[in-house]
Amino acid sequence: MIVRTPPPKKQRSDDGGSPATAGNPLVTYEDSPLQTCHDHSDQYLCTYQCRQMVKADVLDALSKAERQARESQTKLQTLNDKFTQADAERKQFRDKFLYSEQELAAAKGREKVLQEQLLVEITNSQDRFTKQLQSSHTLEVNLQNEMNLRKKAESSLATAEEKAKLFEEKLSQLSASVDREKKRLNSDIAHLGKEAKLSVSRIGADLERMQCRAQNAETESGLLRSQLEHLKHKFDECLQEKTELAMKLASFTSQASPSDNSVLVKHLQEELKRYEAEVREARKFKSQNFDAELLKEKLLEEKSRRERAESELSKLQQLQLSMDKLENELSSWKSLLNDIPGVACPDDIFMKFSTLQKEVLDSTVKIGEASTRSKQLEVALDATQLGRQNAETEAALAKEKSEALKSDVKRIEVMLSLVTEEREQLKAVLSEFRKSNSGGFMSGATDGALVQGLQSSLAKKENYLKDLENDLSQLKDVNNRQRNEIELLNEKLVNEARKIKSLERDSDRLRSEISLLESKLGHGDFSAANTKVLRMVNTLGVENEAKQTIEALQAELQKTRERLLAVEELKSQSGDPGKLVDSHITGKISQLKEQIATLEKREERYKTVFADRISVFRRACCELFGYKIVMDEHQRPNGIPITRFTLQSIYAQSDDEKLEFEYESGNTSILDNQYASQGEIAKQVEIFIRKFNSIPAFTANLTMESFNRRTLY
Amino acid sequence: MASKIAAAKDIITLHGSAAIVSEFFFYPEESFVKVKKYGLPMLLIEDESVKSFMSNLTSQISEWLEAGKLQRVVLVIMSKATGEVLERWNFRIETDKEVVEKGVSREKSDKEIMREIQAIMRQVASSITYLPCLDETCVFDVLAYTDADVAVPFTWIDSDPKLIANPQMVKLHAFDTKIHKVDTLVSYKNDEWDEEDA
After folding, report:
1. Do A534 and B90 touch (CB under 8 A)?
2. Which regions of A557-708 does DSSP assign to beta strands (E)?
3. What pTM, to 2 d.p., does this model score?
4. Domain A626-713 CATH (choose: 1.10.10.10, 3.30.457.60, 3.40.640.10, 3.30.565.10)
5. Whether B72 and A535 lie within 8 Å, measured CB to CB
6. What is the pLDDT of residues A226-258, one digit of tens each?
7. Least crowded by CB within 10 Å, which of A89, A163, A169, A497?
8. For residues A670 and A676, what is the distance between their CA atoms, to the nearest angstrom?
9. Which of A183, A532, A536 sits opposite B56 (nearest CB)?
């Protein structure tokens, strides 16, 4: 350090030093021979004196040099002090620099922390976003699953319904076939009963026939006996005659000639033979007669048999038809049995029925369950849709948030870049400082400027930090706001879910109401706005009168029949005179029948004419008096018949404007109904009917009022 | 033309069923003849008064059917003594307005229609098994539910619907012609014995 003194000092020493040593360089003793050898070769020529002089000069120069050395040492010391001072100052600056560097590092650390926080937040938000996306995906998957389930449930519902329908159809078919079977069996039973009756009646008829035959045989035997007696009597008479004749003959033989006698005898014998022939003929006739009667009876019997056979034939045809039908039914049943799985014999059908009914019940229960399930699914679907919407909105919010965060990050990055620039600037400043430091001492002014620059940069940093803190607080506020919004949305969601539930309840109620109304409609309810109920006027009532007359005539006919039967009995008792009465009665009956037929025809004609005329009359009445009149027959609870008239004005403004009158044995009275009890109408009724006892005046007045109402307003 | 034929078919069906119902309740067995219709043996009444009533009724109803104004035909069975309604045979008719207004014809085979009518006939005939016994003299009446704008003919009057309070209802098969769909439903008075049991 001492050897290599800086040149400016040399200059200074030159400036302030002695001029005698100006030309001689300062040489060390040891170096001197060399220097003399190289630079000053004429010193070898110096003498002793010269050497002494040189010594003295050297000594002077040494003392001077010593002094200078002392001076320079003092200077050095001062410089050293200055240097130490500068060093301390440098140290201070270094400390300050380090401090600022530390502060910078702290700022960086904070920045890093903030960045990390931001990154964490971003990653959190991204995670949340991904989670929400995942949840939305899962919700979508769930939704699809639910939709699939719903479709499946609907399809199963449809299949169950179809099954139920099929079962119902089967059931109805089976019930119909069972009914048919029952009916057929009933008809068979009736048929068998009829057959049994027929056979009983046939047997009875046979019995009666046999009895008749026996009676006939008895009467014939009686007749034959009487004939026999008659013939015996005749025979006795003949014998008596014969004896008489023999006596006569004897007397004649005594009196007359024997030739005459013999002639007479011959004559008598011939007569006798004729008689005998006659008797034989009579017997033959009798037997023939008997045979003829027998044949007639047989013929009748055969006829009846033939009729029976014919009827039996027709029955047989019917039976064959029914047999065919039964066979068809049986085959259809068999095919049905074959069609029904798990049924081997008809006894199984009842089991099958019960199982089918159970199945139907089960299926209806299943349908109910499926419908409830579908409803639940619908509700869940709605809820999931709502959740999905919420999730979507949340995702949108998160996206917005993430975008905001990204912009924040960008801002922060910009700030970071600014900070790094500043750092660079600071580094540059520091290097400058270092340079200046290394180059020598710095002026206080530049140091102050540097310090000020650093302070200002520090202040800027602090401002940045404050800004960042403000940003953070703002972000926190935004977060809080978003949270509040989410909570509000959740509350809204809950409210909406409640609303949905109440709406579902309402829809269920409405469905039940609809089903009730449908059942009412099916029963026969109607709305008066677009439907009218009509019935045909009393035509069967008119016909009832005709029926009554017909019934009376029929009763008369029955009576005459009874009389006829009585007369027939009388006839059978009293023989011939009955025939006359019989023919007379049959003639009368035919006459009466003809009369009945003509009367019926006339009645028909009267009816048609009456219907035509009455319609004309009604129309005319309506046109002339302005009232449509409907007549009804009623009976009071005590059985007294009343005729009720319902009048409707052609100027009536609604269907309810009807007047009702009761007509009973010449008295007509108005009935109180809704229309008649209206204020104005009631007043008119009071005045015209109750006070003046005039219905026509009342109806005319009402007509005028209705007409005026129709035309004037 | 097609609509006329179909309308006539409808009428025949209603007429037939009415006659069948009347068979069971009102008229003696002798006043019916056996006729084969829709492939089924049926009993049609021979009583002239009922026949003329039916012919008047069916002519009016076919007129309404052709115009598409008829909503429902109801056969009401009432007690003669008290006038209480015991049974209501509801034939609800849904008219295809398009067919009536534009004359478009639908494709449906007669065989299928016949089959459906047969099914109803069978059900009507078998309904005797569950309908309550009518052990008193009864009368029947026919109600027509028409559109409100229909002019009332002179042989017809407005009527109340003659409903049964708290009825039992049995839905029968429906059948469908090319123009009209007919739903059949029978409602009857609730059996008092059942109520007492319940």
Report:
1. no
2. 627-635, 641-649, 659-664, 667-671
3. 0.31
4. 3.30.457.60
5. no
6. 888 888 888 888 888 888 877 877 776 555 555
7. A169
8. 9
9. A536
